[in-house]
């Protein structure tokens, strides 16, 4: 059963069961002029495994508009080496359908999997850093208010031992005690 997918320029394209992408993404990129600027096509030459010369078209234009750069507020978590959510969204929309699985073996802060979930796909992923799951899980399944209240009541934000003196120049003693207590709770 073919599906309908929206292209970069808002055109609907019938997608075959096996192709899972617009019939000619290359044509779509080449013809893109949504903001009055024609796409420039460059040739990137790479050497293949058998020393064969492969010419790859490189499309230059303003494909990512400010509207496209606007993202869901669920992505607003600082994390090193992350990318904008529009990048995985671009590929998820073109290469999968709602209900498909999207797997990310390097979750990071969960950008790809969160976009997959927002687009109605089933997110699957792993990461060597346990922080990745801690950052993503509450955004995929937000806790209820009663669950939050119960969890907060469990927190003991007092710090029983002496506070690190070198940090007292940066924090009020009560604030530092809460930070140290939270650190102990999380670790």
Automatic annotation (TrEMBL):
Per its UniProt record, what Gene3D superfamilies does this chain match?
Vaccinia Virus protein VP39 (3.40.50.150)
Q: Which organism is it from?
A: mine drainage metagenome
- DNA methylase N-4/N-6 domain residues are 61-129
One of the entry's Gene Ontology molecular-function terms is: DNA binding
- Protein name listed in UniProt: DNA modification methylase
Residue ranges crossing the lipid bilayer per the database entry? none
Q: Does the keyword Methyltransferase apply?
A: yes
Coiled coil start-end: none
């Amino acid at each position: 059963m073919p599906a309908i997918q929206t292209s970069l320029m808002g055109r609907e394209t019938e997608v075959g069961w096996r192709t899972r992408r617009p019939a000619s993404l290359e044509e779509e990129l080449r013809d893109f002029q949504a903001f009055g600027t024609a796409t420039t096509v460059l040739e990137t030459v790479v050497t293949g495994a058998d020393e064969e010369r492969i010419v790859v078209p490189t499309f230059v234009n303003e494909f990512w508009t400010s509207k496209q750069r606007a993202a869901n507020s669920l992505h607003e978590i600082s994390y090193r080496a992350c990318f904008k959510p529009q990048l995985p969204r671009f590929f998820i929309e073109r290469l999968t359908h709602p209900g498909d699985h999207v797997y990310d073996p390097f979750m990071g802060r969960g950008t790809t999997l969160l976009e997959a979930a927002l687009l109605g796909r089933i997110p699957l992923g792993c990461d060597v850093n346990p922080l990745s799951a801690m950052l993503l899980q509450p955004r995929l399944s937000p806790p209820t208010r009663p669950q939050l209240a119960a969890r907060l009541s469990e927190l003991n934000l007092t710090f029983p031992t002496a506070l690190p003196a070198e940090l007292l120049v940066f924090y009020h003693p009560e604030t530092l005690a809460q930070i140290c207590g939270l650190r102990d709770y999380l670790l």
